[in-house]
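Q: Please design a sequence for this.
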């Protein structure tokens, strides 16, 4: 009886252990793997219209590495990451260790405080039928533009400081800021006060940060100008706005396209 009991125990344990083992060691043949990979890669969620409604959770189910990957501590040739800073990484407005592009826009303290970017704020999908491939490649397996993003949104935060439209400013901010105690709000307490009402910015937090430090405003309006051109922002009405529209503003719209609308902010239940 005792022996049978032991045997039963033994069988039960081996069985229980073998279940997770089987799951772990389940090996896909090269062919099966390729099919699985291809179907994930061409998952309709990457394209319009599905991408417009996709939540971050849906994308992250397959792309968790986007938030986890960090820069190497040393390059393969031995240069320390902490010793190879770009110019903008030496400014006061840059904090913390070097980090990845995605993390700087999604999860670092500054990103969380001031911004509310989603995967599809930048990733708007593309049309695979229109993709270019490397010359002579007719297979269309590796289109060059697969990572295409909507660059208009980059320009909104990485454009030039457009002092030319700002009455009272005679030159770039770096040469004029001392006259205004480095404070944009000396003028912007009164002008264009209806700002940052889009779903990828935290409007109140931005105003608070700007009150403490003008560099914070400049951080998105010239301080990180990767582009040598300014963004033509929409011009919303503001209280006590003059009825005379300046020449440069005559064709400016007064609201953004629907997808940036803060009232249409659709948060998924999981968020
Ligand atoms: C079912 C899993 C899955 C989901 C969900 C998914 N992806 Fe992907 N995605 C893949 C795979 C697999 C590839 C191909 C990766 C490669 O070739 O390195 C890919 C490629 C990409 C690429 C191009 C990367 C490259 O290296 O060429 C981008 C950008 C991307 N996905 C963004 C997104 C976004 C944004 C979402 C959400 C809207 C999303 N993905 C949802 C599996 C997925
Ligand atoms: C601020 C804009 C922005 C946001 C927000 C953003 N991405 Fe990206 N993403 C980019 C850019 C730019 C690239 C690089 C394109 C290139 O290399 O040509 C990229 C590349 C990728 C790639 C290709 C792999 C790689 O590392 O280059 C994947 C996958 C991806 N993004 C997924 C996501 C997911 C998932 C989210 C949301 C959690 C997200 N992205 C949020 C702009 C963004
Ligand atoms: C809502 C504003 C906003 C948008 C939109 C935005 N950025 Fe940024 N970006 C920032 C801010 C703020 C920082 C500084 C983050 C930090 O230093 O922590 C930054 C940093 C960067 C950096 C430096 C990252 C590093 O680690 O050194 C690059 C490169 C960059 N952005 C490119 C882009 C591109 C390309 C796009 C469009 C796909 C984009 N950004 C969209 C606000 C934005
Ligand atoms: C001397 C006053 C003054 C100062 C200081 C000032 N601005 Fe302006 N700014 C203006 C005026 C005036 C306008 C245009 C108002 C209008 O639309 O008629 C303007 C417009 C803008 C616009 C919209 C530009 C466009 O093309 O629609 C942005 C963005 C902006 N300012 C950001 C800033 C930031 C950030 C700072 C600080 C780094 C700053 N301003 C400092 C007066 C000022
Ligand atoms: C995290 C990035 C970021 C920071 C920080 C930031 N802005 Fe902006 N700002 C934007 C973006 C993106 C837009 C375009 C969206 C919009 O107009 O709502 C914009 C638009 C504006 C506009 C034009 C909007 C309109 O309708 O008149 C003004 C003026 C402006 N910002 C001033 C400021 C001032 C002043 C500060 C500091 C208190 C500041 N910004 C800080 C990203 C930023």
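A: Design:
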């Amino acid at each position: 009886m005792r022996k049978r009991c032991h045997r039963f125990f033994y069988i039960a344990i081996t069985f229980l252990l073998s279940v997770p083992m089987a799951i772990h060691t389940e090996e896909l043949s090269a062919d099966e793997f390729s099919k699985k990979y291809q179907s994930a890669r061409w998952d309709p969620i990457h394209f319009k219209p599905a991408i417009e409604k996709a939540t971050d959770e849906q994308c992250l189910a397959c792309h968790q590495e986007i938030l986890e990957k960090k820069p190497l501590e040393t390059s393969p040739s031995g240069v320390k990451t902490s010793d190879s800073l770009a110019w903008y990484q030496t400014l006061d407005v840059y904090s913390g260790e070097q980090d990845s592009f995605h993390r700087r826009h999604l999860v670092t303290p500054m990103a969380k405080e001031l911004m509310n970017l989603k995967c599809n704020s930048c990733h708007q999908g593309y049309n695979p039928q229109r993709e270019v491939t490397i010359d002579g490649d007719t297979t269309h397996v590796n289109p060059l533009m697969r990572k295409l993003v909507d660059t208009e949104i980059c320009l909104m935060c990485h454009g030039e400081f457009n002092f030319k439209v700002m009455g009272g400013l005679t030159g770039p901010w770096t040469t004029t800021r001392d006259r205004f105690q480095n404070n944009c709000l000396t003028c912007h307490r009164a002008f264009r006060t209806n700002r940052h009402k889009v779903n990828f910015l935290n409007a109140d937090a931005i105003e608070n940060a700007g009150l403490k430090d003008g560099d914070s405003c400049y951080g998105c309006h010239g301080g990180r100008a990767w582009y040598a051109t300014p963004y033509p922002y929409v011009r919303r009405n503001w209280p006590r706005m003059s009825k005379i529209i300046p020449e440069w503003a005559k064709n400016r719209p007064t609201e953004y396209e629907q997808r940036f609308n803060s009232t249409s902010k659709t948060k998924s239940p999981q968020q």
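Q: Thanks. Anything notable?
A: Residues 183 and 213 are 7 Å apart (CA to CA). The radius of gyration is 26 Å.
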